[in-house]
Amino acid sequence: MHTRRLRHMACASAALFVALGGAPAFADPAPSGSAVPTSSNAPEAVPEIAPKGQPAEPGQPELQPDVELREPQFESRGYVEGEPLRVTLTIANMGPGEAKEVKAGFRSVSGAQFTFDDAQWGDLGTGVTLAPKETRELRVTGHFKEATGTGAQLEFSTTTVNDSDLADNKKVVSVPVVPPATKGSVAGTVYLDKYNNTIADAGEGAADVPVTINGPRVQDLTVRTDANGRFEAKDLPAGQYTVNAPRQLADGWLTQTATVVVNGERPNDNILIQAVRPLSAQLKATAKFNEGPYKPGDEATLRSP
């Protein structure tokens, strides 16, 4: 009777303890050394990134190039139609990845039309590869074709495959231009350089020689020299001009072509068109044999005096 009552009380106490959230006193403890479950909110491992300039390992992010175009360098002054524009471009790969198919480009934005021949771009016209931190410098010469305003906006650019930053790939520069409405003149002398000193000495002027002037807006304008070899053409639109006399004058004198810029600022009143004697009139060749007379089969030596 007493044993049955004690057993009933023990079962009731165990049930009450479980209902309150406790483990039964007789529950087996967790085995020592067993793994402790990790939280589902634990951060994932971050993969390591290969050092700059090294190819990424499988599973790592691909290293990207960052090609940038630095500020174009050119002589800042007023340009006229027909005049060349010489520009230095610097392109650099600042990213950790190799830059492939790197190209350079250009376009006229406003104010004037400039052109660059495809050959000017070299391998940067077809595409080159730049290693990380590699820099390439390019000098190109463009042609000022036509002015449509008083200032030109020109855009130079570079491209590559998978560039990480496109914001530094373009540069827009302002180029001052002289409008064709600006007028000027060209004047000078055609002279026979008898003393071969590149100076128009007294009495060397060539009279009544036709002089032809060509520029972007003036074609085949011809004036003639006076008795002293002087010529002049007025009211020419701003531009770069070629000034030439006939290639060969009387008595075989050979002339050269002059190039002049009319921009309304610099005077062009002393253009010299030099005429020189042909080489056939300047060179004289003589030769003599070292001895003689000679018989058939003899060896002769020809010497210059």
From TrEMBL:
This is Alpha-amylase. It comes from Kibdelosporangium persicum. Residues 29-65 are annotated as: Disordered. InterPro entries: Ig-like_fold. Keywords: Signal. Coiled coil: none annotated. Residues 1-27 form the signal peptide.
